Amino acid sequence: MSGKVKKFADIKPHYVRLSGTEGDDIHRTVKIAPLDKYPFKIKKVRAKTGENIKLSFKKVKAEEKKTYEVSVENLKKTPGSYRDVIYIDTNSKLRPVLSLNVSGTIKAKKPPQRIKDGISKKEMPEFTFYYNEKSDFLEKSFTSRLEDIAKELTSGKLHDKRILIQGHSDNLKPEPESIKASFERAKEIKDILVDQHGIKETRINIEGVGFEKPVASNKTEKGRAKNRRAVIHILEGFKSGKPKLK
Q: Can you give the residue ranges of every domain in the chain?
């Protein structure tokens, strides 16, 4: 066959960007679907240097079409940036090697924010509630714990503090669904505090974070269980306005 082949396969994305904060689980998946006109099999994936990335691939079926998924995992543990190239070896004589560019940007963790009374947000109390994989609703076992927290928020030492409730999820659902599910988790706890325990709604702000801030790897069920959570943050120094954690 002669001439230039304009399109050999459907590849998404064409450029791999790995960005996040040191300590985060950072990885991307590239989907490669051979065109019917140019069928091929992937034999091997490799990196030009491989110093900062780990590669693997598997064959999947998507809508009756043969597709490959190439997993690209960041290995860099310290702040900085890097570039690399992924080479995909195929059994095609037409295109024996496909290539993808990779860039990585790892940011340093920010220290806990200091606020006007000299206490960091990380030093204030926070309370975490975990969720079952098949439910976005709080388990009944957490009811008594939430009651104790509500008492502190109404009549205890935390009675005048602002509250930020953040919902989180694992990465099993697409981003829009994950954000919605995490927001509903935060909203559920807010509604319980307001409707059942009389806490003023103006003291509480809620956020749906989705899967952007995992505390464990999403590659295992044990890790995903830790990421399906809602966290009540008690914030010192915010008597009015909207508090925000970063």
A: 9-107, 121-235
Cβ 219 vs Cβ 178: under 8 Å: no
- What is the residue-averaged pLDDT of the chain? 83
Alpha-carbon gap, residue 92 to 39, rounded angstroms: 8
Are 87 and 46 a contacting pair, CB within 8 Å? yes
Residue % of the chain over a pLDDT of 70: 83
Cα-Cα end-to-end distance for the chain: 55
Structure tokens at 169: 């999820």
Distance between CA 74 and CA 77 in Å, rounded?
8
**pLDDT greater than 80 at residue 157:** no
Number of Cβ atoms within 10 Å of the Cβ of 30: 22
In sequence order, what E strands does the chain have? Answer: 9-12, 15-21, 27-34, 42-47, 53-62, 65-74, 80-90, 97-107, 126-130, 162-168, 204-210, 229-235
Other residues' Cβ atoms within 10 Å of the Cβ of residue 138? 18
Give yes or no for a contact between 70 and 32, defined as CB atoms under 8 angstroms apart: yes
Q: What's the length of the chain?
A: 246
Contacts of 127 (CB under 8 A, 6+ apart): 145, 149, 231, 232
For residues 18 and 27, the answer to whether their CB atoms sit within 8 Å is yes
Whole-prediction pTM value?
0.49
197 by Cβ neighbours in 10 Å (0-12 / 13-18 / 19+) ranks as: middle
CATH 3.30.1330.60 fits 121-235, yes or no: yes
Phi, psi values for residue 117, rounded to 5°: -90, 5
Question: Under CATH, which number does the domain 9-107 receive?
Answer: 2.60.40.10
Q: Could you say which DSSP state residue 161 is in?
A: -
